[in-house]
Amino acid sequence: MRALARVRRGEGVAVLCLDLDRFKAVNDSLGHPVGDALLQAVAVRLRECVHETDLVVRLGGDELAVVQEGASQPAEAAAAATRIIVALLARFDVAGHQVSAGDSIGIALAGPGSTDADALMRCADLALYRAKEDGRGTLRFFEPGMDEQMRVRRELEADLGAALGQGELALFYQPLMDTQRGCVGGFEALLRWQHPVRGTVSPAVFIPLAEETGMIMAIGAWVIRKACADAARWTAPVKVAVNLSPVQFRDRSLPHIVAEALAESGLAPTRLELEITESLLLLDDEKVLEILHGLRALGVRIAMDDFGTGYSSLSYLRRFPFGKIKIDQSFVRGMMEQKDCAAIVSTVVSLGRLLGMSVNAEGVETREQFLALREQGCGEVQGYLFSPPRPASEVAAMLDGIGQAVTQEPALAGPLSPAGGSAAPRPSAGCPA
Predict the structure, then answer these.
(1) Do 42 and 20 contact (CB within 8 A), yes or no?
(2) Is residue 95 classed exposed, middle or buried when 0-12, 13-18 and 19+ CB atoms within 10 A define those classes?
(3) Tens of pLDDT along 82-91?
């Protein structure tokens, strides 16, 4: 209230709301005492980033706020927020653990007519939500339209909570092409949401929402069961790849969930691949490694997705024996025109060969990309050159209609249909996993 009194005198005040991007992961994996110690270390760094007259408070959990007095211009609040973001990016040595926190910040500026404390905090909180949605580790100022966006988000959250029970979620499948044998070696299961009113909702919208709310636990378990059941009915014994969210690794029963899905469906464990992203391994987390080893003990294969886009890809390959690494599509997209992308792709393929790991290249859209990848020895590719993700009911057609028609040399001169087929002779249905 003292700070807002200064607004009435024509002075500026900014409220910065922030929370720690990886605090829950620290709490879950290393325990609450380590989490509490991390909060104390964060508070010390925060005090170093602001002025003595600024107020730093903990709102609850990992949510904190800074009341910045005398911030008459947005640039002053942005400068303070940037200092905080940079400071919290550096790792903390907490109770013998090296942990990273990171933060997102929402900013609201007080001015004439905006001196209600609760309203100002609410505006900063809405801006914080936008910062987190935009990728975390960033700052956003409050804008009037954020009120409406939050209302829409709450509606979407409620609809997602009912989507699974109402049969609105479905799995689509994209073929994984064996480059040497010229056939479909498996399919990646991709989650889709068909909303009765909104139509198709992008996974980029609803997956982060499911992760943030915890709904990904139930949805993820359903995806595993459904993918195993679908694959068990396919006419060829090819594999199925399922993406796992880092949030699912908060539950030590994940190996049990996978084991039950395999038992219920009768699917051989060797036909199941589980894909994780590097963000899962950002923390030196023994719990995560324990779960990964538990999954591997079932006989399934673990793949690292989006390889090369994180911070410590090579160190992760030393910490866990992955069966497959997937080259991110951003490198594949640029490999024909950009020397750095081409060098990264070539290096990853060679690395996989030396480590005894298979390599998959995502986002293959042209014949030239495919030929270059095959020549380098990349064993598996996927992308719109062969097929977009399709409903489960079309898997049989993809097994029969995609393969040698695309990948063998004689067919390369012929045009591809939009679905990835051509006029060349059709191969046998799939190839063994």
Answers:
(1) yes
(2) middle
(3) 999 999 988 8
Q: What does the pLDDT read at residue 426?
A: 38
* Inter-residue contact 184 to 399 (CB < 8 Å): yes
CA–CA dist 310, 400 (Å, integer): 37
Q: Which of 142, 136, 77, 76 is nearest to 106 (CA)?
A: 142
Per-residue buried b or exposed e for 374-399, using 16+ beta carbons within 10 Å of the residue's own CB: bebebbbbbbbbbbebbebeebeebb
Q: Return the amino acid letter for 409.
A: E
Task: Name the token pair of 149.
Answer: 């966006």
User: Side chain identity at 123, as an amino acid letter?
Assistant: C
Cβ count near 426 (within 10 Å):
15
pLDDT of residue 424: 33
* pLDDT value, residue 418: 33
Taking the model in full, what pTM does it have? 0.72
**Residues sharing a CB contact under 8 Å with residue 398, sequence separation 6 or more, in sequence order:** 173, 175, 184, 187, 387, 390, 420
pLDDT of residue 194: 96
| 147 in Cβ contact with 89 (< 8 Å) | no
Q: What contacts 379, CB < 8 A, 6 or more positions away?
A: 178, 179, 180, 358, 359, 360
**Gap between the Cα atoms of 420 and 402, Å rounded:** 7
What integer pLDDT is reported at residue 392 of this predicted model?
A: 96
In this predicted structure, what is the pLDDT of residue 217? 96
Q: Which domains does the chain have, with CATH numbers?
A: 2-143 (3.30.70.270), 156-411 (3.20.20.450)
What pLDDT is recorded for position 3? Answer: 52
pLDDT at 25: 76
Contact call for residues 69 and 53 (beta carbons, < 8 A) = yes
Beta bridge partners of 66: 16, 56
A 10 A CB-CB count for 400 gives 17
pLDDT < 50: residue spans in the chain: 1, 404-405, 410-428
Question: Rounded to 5 degrees, what angle do the CA atoms 200, 129, 201 make?
Answer: 0
